[in-house]
Amino acid sequence: MLVDGSYQPPRALGRVPAMDAWEAALTERGGALFPASAALLAGDRLPNIEQQVVLVRNGLDVRFWNTLTIVGKIEARGAFIALVPVPDLQAVIVEDISGMAIDRLATGLLEAHSIDEGGIPDQGIGGHDEMWFAARDLAFGPEAYPDVEPQPGLAREDVTRYLPEVSEEIEQILSFIANVLIIEFRAEIGFAETQAVLTTPGLFGERAADAALGAEIVGRIRTDEEIHVRSLSLHLGELSNVTFRTLEGGTIAGSK
């Protein structure tokens, strides 16, 4: 917490000023953050807020419990982000990237993102996964319903090569960054809806205050995710502003 009582995400003390500097440098080079937003995922989501409220109000709240549980377990999987292999980008980029954020992917940035999501359980450091379980238990009480696992096959594997001009490992890291950004956008929409349900007047009865605290926890998760969206947009913005060496000995603009 900051001195004024507002929430400050963990691991933000160094990341935020660094991103300020990287963004300023990108602008000076004529670049910009990658222009993407959650509007990419516009469309109907079911159940919507009103439908979810009806289900909870009529005793069919196990689905909402399951949703909070599954989201927490998916967040825990985010710990793998630190294990993603990052190839030598400088070897395939014409410009000097030593002062860019993309040169720090393997030396702290992906690790910080992964700790936010899944913590470091071996060291007793919790992440968003534990925060989701706490929000769920505040709204319903511990062990209100049996545990549940995410269904298999939530992640779709696409083996199509979209960037044959570069090596597969380079394409994989570019695709990974873009896909994580889409996941963050999807999360933002779902998390906002969760807060709306948790703060619906009269929905959680005598647990209303606890449910509201759960909504505040979800709000803090959303604040953490803002850093992730900003960081991923920065990475893609930098990658769009450089020139890649192709496998055939030529070059191709990152924007392409």
Briefly characterize the structure:
By secondary structure, the protein is mostly helical. Helix content is 50%, strand content 2%.
Number of strands: 2
Number of helices: 7
**What overall geometry do the principal axes of the alpha carbons give?**
elongated
Radius of gyration: 20 Å
Describe this structure in words.
- The protein is an all-alpha fold and 256 residues long.
- It has one domain.
- The chain has helices at residues 12-28, 49-57, 62-77, 109-118, 128-140, 168-198, 208-240; strands at 243-245, 251-253.
- Strands 1-2 form a two-stranded antiparallel ribbon.
- The model has no long low-confidence stretch (mean pLDDT 95).
